[in-house]
Design goal:
Largest sheet: none
Structural class: mainly alpha
Order of helices and strands: H
Strand content: under 5%
Shape: rod-shaped
Radius of gyration: 36 Å
Oligomer: single chain
Number of helices: 1
Number of strands: 0
Length: about 80
């Protein structure tokens, strides 16, 4: 009877060890995936930052161009007024 009990305990220990090994393996996979996801998030943040900087630069250039066009329009108006009078 004792031997049968010992066999059952050993069998349960082996099963539990296998489960723990599976859990450790799964945990390792989860950590790898979490790390990859974290790296992707960092990359996306860098991309978004770069896009915002590019957008700001483009907007500043547009404002500059519009102000130049407005300045040219004023000069043209001034020349037209001189010609007419």
């Amino acid at each position: 009877m004792v031997s049968e009990f010992e066999d059952k305990v050993l069998e349960l220990l082996v099963e539990n060890n296998q489960r723990l090994n599976n859990i450790k393996s799964d945990l390792t996979d989860v950590k790898k995936k979490a790390n990859m996801t974290h790296q992707e998030v960092i990359s996306l943040r860098e991309d978004v930052t770069m896009l915002k900087e590019n957008k700001d630069g483009i907007e500043k250039e547009q404002v500059y161009q519009f102000s130049k066009w407005a300045e040219h329009d004023r000069r043209i108006d001034k020349i037209e007024r001189k010609i007419m009078f």
